[in-house]
Write a structure and sequence with these properties.
binds beta-D-glucopyranose, alpha/beta
Length: 731
């Protein structure tokens, strides 16, 4: 690697911003090559001609693998890994060193226009999938850029909105997926988001980019800006942002040079950033070659089949037999919606359609290409089964803006209802990036297969699932609500006057619905199969003060091979903070032949029990009882066991401003106070004093300072001072 000291200040500054839209500047004299960074993450969008980040100009053909919304529903890190590895192989072949992704922001509201690029409403699931993607992609020699760091959960005003999030919510919901990816998978780059967090741009946020990311999480890679996210280059560099993208024609390099020359910026800050850049360039050089487009198309199909979610299947409507007459209705059957709009848009190598794939399975297929009630009803009446391909059009959701409704377009709902009334059996296949409401037609139809966006080979996967060539195994990574008004962020999305208040706190997604016991259409974790599973013999072994091992047996009790997702939730009331009713803390996907059973073992680490304590600014495991629950989904628990967790010994600090309750409840001061107060009393007086303890409740919110004033000499100040010291020493 080139030695930083061999470079001039001008050369060093030049490395810290792009040459153009998607590459870094070379320094030919010093032998530093340029490298290419491009989107990502479910395929490569390498633009041969003029580049843009809105996906407007077409790019070189590459395989469009299932986007994150689908991968999230696979509940399988292996699927995320295969997407990462295959996209990595293509990036390498196309000469790309950094493939920008994965996006692991939390789906705070179903309205976020970019939810199709994110995995889940749950940070644990998002983190596990993101880490698998990054590891696999980087193993192929292509750097990842985990994004958008952090609290970028909407598109409205994304360039300047302040996400106003409290400390605990940030730590428990919006940061853990990043923390896991950074600490478990060491992404070569982290992309900071456009937005502000509590009033400060992420790109200038030293706490975020240095104190947390580097000092606490021990991150050693490069921080790159989202494209255009830097507004003050010197402030951003000082905060920990290494590489500004895209290039600024050298204007901001000059700002860096001037700041060093004027003494406003220490040159060692520049050197550190350059060292990281050089190590990235060194570690991920430009390669080239070819990739097997056919093999990757087949892989994209295999992966897509793991992601679609069978939401409903009354009367065993699915799978279809090849001999039934099918009416295929809707334009998505011939013009598939398979990826989202914006910077992640891939120019696919091929594109399958559901109509062709269904025709490959069944002899009698009629097709109504449009959402036309008259034609649809006629076709449905003439067939055994009607399959309606519904969903959202490209323009209804995209990077850059949010949705304002979760409804399907009205013309589609009209067709679904009319078809359901006319057909013997109705199946709805959905293609959408963000969740859509199923209300108004859900009860009319027999089966619903939610495909989300499945990539270029998704149509083949849909046909395989409809005809039972494969068995659905996807599960919802986000709740499908009954109404938009029920969603936890409803009152605070997308904010106003450049602020969005995360008022629901940690109660995001299923955490809200399960805690409030609010009904939903389909809960987080829901997904049906053509076979049936049984979960039994749950065992929980506490393995330390704050860890446990869960073992559980799952059996395939049906007559088809299938995959079951074991979902382990932890529920507790322990500790001083309000906990969600339950939180996902471990999961695994198990493949089982008919009649087969397997015992799986999952680990609950310290974090599975912890909450973020805003008084101590750290993770705390409260001592107490924890219920370990195995759920079909977040709303229905099939088996559970309670365990006692020793947790942390927390000795709270005391002062004269602590309340009477805090003093008397204190593990050291409380007993000492009682002893002091009852010393010298007769046994009868002591018994009476203990009985009167109840009366303390009246004054428990009083600060000790006031209480002492009331009691006068009964509670000497010197004794209290001694106790304050004793508690401090014990902490
Ligand atoms: C997006 C990023 C993307 C970048 C480069 C930005 O607008 O937010 O996700 O990686 O453009 O295309």
């Amino acid at each position: 690697m080139i030695d930083v000291s061999a470079l001039t200040l001008d050369q060093k500054a030049s490395l810290l911003s792009g040459r153009d839209f998607s590459s870094t500047k070379p320094i030919e004299d010093a032998g530093v090559p340029s490298i290419v960074l491009t989107d990502g993450p479910h395929g490569v969008r390498k633009q041969a001609g003029p580049a843009d980040h809105l996906g407007i100009n077409n790019s070189e053909p590459a395989t469009c693998f299932p986007p994150a919304v689908a991968v999230g529903s696979s509940w399988d890190p292996e699927i995320a890994a295969q997407v990462g590895a295959a996209a990595g192989r293509e990036a390498r072949a196309l000469g790309v060193s950094v493939l920008l992704g994965p996006g692991i922001n939390i789906k705070r509201s179903p309205l976020c226009g970019r939810n199709f690029e994110y995995y889940s409403e749950d940070p644990y699931l998002s983190g596990m999938l993101g880490a698998a993607h990054v590891r696999a992609q980087q193993t192929e020699g292509v750097a990842a850029s985990v994004k958008h760091f952090a609290a970028n959960n909407q598109e409205t005003e994304r360039m300047r909105v302040s996400a106003d999030v409290d400390e605990r919510t940030l730590r428990e919901i919006y940061l853990p997926a990043f923390e896991r990816v950074v600490t478990d998978a060491a992404p070569a780059t982290v992309m900071c988001s456009y937005n502000k967090i509590n009033g400060m741009y992420a790109s200038e946020n030293r706490w975020l980019l240095t104190d947390l990311l580097r000092d606490e999480w021990r991150y050693t890679g490069v921080v790159v800006s989202d494209w255009g996210a830097v507004s003050d280059r010197v402030a951003a560099l000082s905060a920990g942002l290494d590489l500004e993208m895209p290039g600024t024609g050298g204007a901001t390099d000059r700002e860096i040079i001037d700041a060093v020359r004027s003494g406003a910026l220490d040159e060692s800050v520049v050197d550190e950033a350059v060292r990281r850049l050089l190590s990235l360039i060194d570690g991920y050089p430009t390669r080239g070659g070819a990739f097997d487009a056919d093999a990757h198309h087949t892989l994209a199909r295999t992966l897509a089949a793991e992601c679609a979610v069978l939401l409903k299947n009354d009367h065993d409507t699915l799978p279809l037999s090849a001999s039934v007459d099918v009416a295929v209705i809707g334009e998505f059957a011939t013009e598939p919606r398979y990826q989202g709009s914006g910077s992640s848009r891939v120019n696919p190598t091929r594109l399958d359609t559901a109509l062709d794939e269904i025709r490959a399975n069944a002899a009698n297929v009629r097709h109504v290409p449009h959402f036309d009630v008259g034609q649809a009803v006629a076709a449905a009446e003439a067939a055994d089964v009607a399959v309606v391909f519904a969903g959202l059009n490209d323009a209804e959701e995209s990077e850059g803006y949010d949705r304002t409704t979760i409804d399907l377009p009205a013309d589609q709902v009209d067709v679904i209802r009319a078809v359901a009334a006319a057909a013997r059996r109705t199946v709805v296949v959905l293609s959408n990036g963000g969740v859509v409401s199923l209300e108004g037609w859900h009860d009319d139809v027999d089966a619903i297969l939610e495909g989300f966006l499945l990539g270029q080979a998704g149509a083949g996967a849909i046909a395989d699932l409809l005809y039972g060539v494969l068995n659905p195994s996807g599960h919802l990574a986000e709740t499908i609500p009954l109404r938009l008004q029920d969603t936890p962020a409803f009152h605070n999305f997308p904010g106003e006057q450049q602020h969005v208040r995360y008022g629901e706190g940690v109660m995001v997604g299923y955490r809200h619905y399960t805690t409030a016991q609010a009904p939903v259409r389909y809960p987080f974790g829901h997904g049906l199969s053509y076979t049936s599973f049984e979960t039994r013999a749950l065992g929980v072994e506490v393995t330390g003060d704050d860890t446990a091992t869960v073992t559980v047996t799952v059996a395939n009790t049906g007559d088809r091979a299938g995959k079951h997702v074991v979902q382990v939730y932890v529920a507790t009331d322990a500790g001083p903070v309000r906990r969600p009713a339950r939180e996902l803390r471990a999961f695994t996907k198990v493949a089982l032949e008919p009649g087969e059973q397997r015992t799986v073992s999952l680990t609950l680490d310290r974090r599975a029990f912890a909450y973020w304590d805003i008084q101590h600014h750290r993770w705390v495991v409260a001592p107490g009882e924890y219920r370990i629950q195995v759920g079909e989904n977040a709303a229905s628990i099939v088996t559970e066991e309670s365990v006692k967790i020793t947790g942390d010994v927390i000795i709270p600090e005391l002062s004269m401003d602590s309340t009477v309750k805090e003093w008397f409840g204190h593990p050291i001061a409380g007993p000492a106070l009682m002893q002091g107060m009852t010393a010298g009393m007769t046994p009868e007086q002591q018994a009476q004093a203990e009985q009167q303890q109840d009366q303390l409740r009246m004054v428990e919110s009083m600060r000790m300072r006031q209480f002492v004033g009331f009691l006068g000499s009964a509670m000497p100040m010197a004794a209290l001072d001694q106790l304050i010291e004793a508690t401090r020493a014990a902490r």
